[in-house]
């Protein structure tokens, strides 16, 4: 195929055989969020570039080098959203949904875009399911968000594969004081830092803490620690969160180097990580961002949220073989018919089955074909049973029922008996 007719690097098609696990995951998440009282928001994929610059931060990796930005036909500078929080806050403000202290608990699902180096678990178009809560300031809601993800891992069979890492970043004042101390310590050791960290020393020094460079990490062993600079309120908030996680039985580890790549976080930050996916091990990440709404022009509004990487969770489900087996079967019965009179009767019979058994998955053979070829198609469809309708069956208002997945015998039954037989067979 010529090059310009291929998909863009790092932007994947979800093929028909892959979509069942996506739909399973999405259904588990949305079903769970329904039970916790969260509502879905559906937001634009494109926003003004300014929104992301002002929220994510000018000197973050995302804004500096990962955004898909373009001028539209009016000359407006637009960006394909690299994450969901900024657009969500924008929408809350635009519709006055957080005014007067109104509590909002919302979630979203959809594609995000970042120009990163594509590799396993890292793509240029990827999908996030995210949750945001506005106007609740206490650690109780931070705990709820984490507890509901823990429940989700339980539903998905992933609990043994993930670890919760937790940290607190304190208030922006505490962070500013700490930043000065860290810079002072590193400034005199500048030549021992890797190139990226040298640059971050002036742009975003806290990000040096999660540098992957071993020499830089060694240098950080004796560096000032954020804990020592934390304000009392943040400490109390963090203690409150931990008490609630313990009460709910959610295991966690404290990672004092967890800083997150977006500027808007303060107080609680957390990541759910796995060692089953190689380098791209964070499957869910979030934290508190009490300053963001104000930063975008609203009133002071406490807020907290997280986002899950759908591709990484799909990979994890597949790696752990935690995908329910029944997902691989999408057809229950395949109705084969021979000759036009039987074809007509087959269509009517299929509709009758759909009336009485709405959740039965029925495929009617299309394109006629010999007995052998229709049975082959039936087998390929993944169906459990082939229903066979020829002239003889038609004359007696009967149908042949042929099991396709085991050796049990074929049988013949009347059209009238068929629905209750199928209901029984498929537990409908
Ligand atoms: P990472 O450290 O892996 O780059 P991040 O801190 O940039 O992640 P967030 O912006 O917090 O990630 O996004 C939340 C989640 O979205 C991540 O934990 C991850 O699961 C997923 N995610 C982020 N970037 C990508 C990507 N390029 N491809 C696939 N999933 C991603
Ligand atoms: Mg990233």
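^ Assign residues to that structure.
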């Amino acid at each position: 195929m010529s090059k310009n007719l291929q998909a863009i690097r790092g932007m994947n098609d979800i093929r028909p055989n892959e979509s069942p696990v996506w739909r399973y995951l999405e259904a588990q998440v949305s079903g769970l969020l329904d039970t916790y009282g969260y509502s879905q928001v559906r937001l634009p994929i494109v926003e003004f570039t300014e929104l992301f610059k002002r929220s994510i931060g000018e000197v973050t990796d995302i804004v500096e080098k990962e955004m898909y930005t373009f001028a539209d036909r009016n000359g407006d500078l637009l960006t394909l959203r690299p994450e969901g929080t900024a657009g969500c806050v924008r929408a809350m403000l635009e519709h006055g949904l957080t005014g007067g202290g109104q509590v909002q608990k919302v979630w979203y699902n959809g594609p995000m875009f970042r120009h990163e180096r594509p590799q396993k678990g890292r793509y240029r178009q990827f999908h996030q399911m995210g949750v945001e809560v506005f106007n609740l300031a206490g650690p109780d809601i931070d705990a709820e968000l984490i507890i509901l993800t823990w429940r989700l891992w339980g539903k998905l069979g992933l609990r043994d594969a993930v670890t919760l890492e937790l940290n607190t970043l304190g208030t922006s004042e505490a962070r500013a004081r700490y930043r000065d101390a860290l810079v002072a310590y590193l400034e005199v050791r500048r030549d021992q830092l890797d190139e990226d960290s040298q640059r971050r020393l002036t742009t975003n020094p806290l990000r040096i803490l999660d540098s992957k460079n071993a020499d830089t990490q060694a240098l950080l062993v004796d560096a000032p620690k954020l804990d020592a600079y934390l304000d009392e309120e943040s400490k109390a908030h963090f203690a409150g969160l931990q008490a609630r996680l313990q009460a709910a039985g959610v295991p966690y580890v404290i990672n004092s180097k967890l800083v997150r790549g977006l500027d808007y976080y303060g107080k609680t930050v957390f990541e759910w990580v796995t060692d089953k996916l190689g380098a791209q091990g964070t499957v869910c990440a979030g934290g508190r961002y009490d300053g963001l709404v104000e930063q975008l022009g609203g009133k002071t509004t406490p807020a907290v949220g997280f986002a899950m990487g759908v591709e990484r969770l799909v990979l994890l489900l597949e790696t752990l073989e935690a995908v329910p087996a029944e997902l691989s079967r999408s057809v229950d019965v395949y109705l084969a018919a021979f000759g036009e009179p039987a074809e007509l009767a087959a269509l009517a019979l299929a509709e009758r089955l759909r009336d009485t058994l709405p959740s039965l998955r029925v495929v009617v053979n299309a394109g006629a074909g010999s007995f052998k070829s229709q049975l082959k198609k039936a087998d390929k469809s993944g169906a459990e049973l082939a229903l066979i309708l020829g002239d003889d069956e038609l004359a007696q208002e009967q149908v042949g029922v042929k099991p396709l997945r085991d050796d049990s015998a074929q049988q013949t039954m009347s059209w009238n008996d068929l629905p209750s037989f199928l209901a029984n067979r498929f537990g409908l």
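The radius of gyration is 28 Å.
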